[in-house]
Recover the amino acids of this structure.
């Protein structure tokens, strides 16, 4: 399922909305999550999962092709932990 | 300090941005999460461009250990969800880090610069 599939599906189920409204709803949600993570905040969506950021310190890495050492700057990576309910639903046989 | 964002803030953002009622905004936030969850439960991959993709991975059975007792116990085959952030998401998160880090750098990269005390004659 892609973002446009998601929008089409939501538009079908909400015939009173314009498709452009559905597009804005999806974009607003994703933008809001992105903005929160950019501030270093956590996004907790019970039953679905939680987004947070993890800090990775600067380190000396290696170019795997040449074996040369390169310094890798510190960075922040987004992290998602699946919620309990979704984890259980994925495994409900 | 890091705050926690929940459905309430997402609902508020949708309410402000799209102009539906608060109730309907809340329902739509829920529908978005429900559609994504249902696709994943069906085993589909969900790709949200410029945000990231969720995929379901099947893991085989392996032996684990109860860390408290040391007993060997089988970990049953299961399906786990993997989130791969897009480059756009990683970039927007790190762009703000660079700005914040830039401020810190000003004070740390010039240890030799005279402090206000030592510069006064």
């Amino acid at each position: 399922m892609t973002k446009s599939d998601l929008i089409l599906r939501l538009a079908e189920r909400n015939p009173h909305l314009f498709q452009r409204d559905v597009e804005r709803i999806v974009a607003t949600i994703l933008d809001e999550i992105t903005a929160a993570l950019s501030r270093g905040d956590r996004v907790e969506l019970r039953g679905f999962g939680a987004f947070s950021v993890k800090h990775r310190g600067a380190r000396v890495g290696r170019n795997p092709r040449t074996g040369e050492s390169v310094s890798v700057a510190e960075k922040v990576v987004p992290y998602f932990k699946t919620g309990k309910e979704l984890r259980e639903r994925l495994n409900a046989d | 300090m890091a705050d926690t964002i929940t459905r309430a803030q997402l609902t508020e953002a949708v309410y402000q941005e799209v102009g539906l009622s608060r109730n309907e905004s809340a329902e739509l936030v829920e529908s978005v999460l429900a559609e994504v969850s249902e696709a994943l439960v069906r085993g589909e991959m969900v790709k949200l461009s410029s945000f990231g993709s969720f995929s379901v991975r099947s893991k085989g059975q392996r032996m684990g250990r109860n860390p408290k007792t040391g007993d060997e116990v089988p970990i049953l085959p299961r399906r786990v969800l993997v989130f791969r952030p897009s480059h756009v998401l990683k970039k927007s998160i790190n762009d703000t880090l660079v700005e914040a880090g830039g401020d810190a750098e000003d004070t740390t990269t010039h240890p030799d610069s005279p402090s206000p005390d030592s510069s006064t004659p």
Residues 19-38 of chain A form the longest helix (20 residues). Chain A has a mean pLDDT of 95. Strands of chain A lie at 42-45, 49-56, 59-62, 69-72, 75-82. The longest strand of chain A covers residues 49-56.
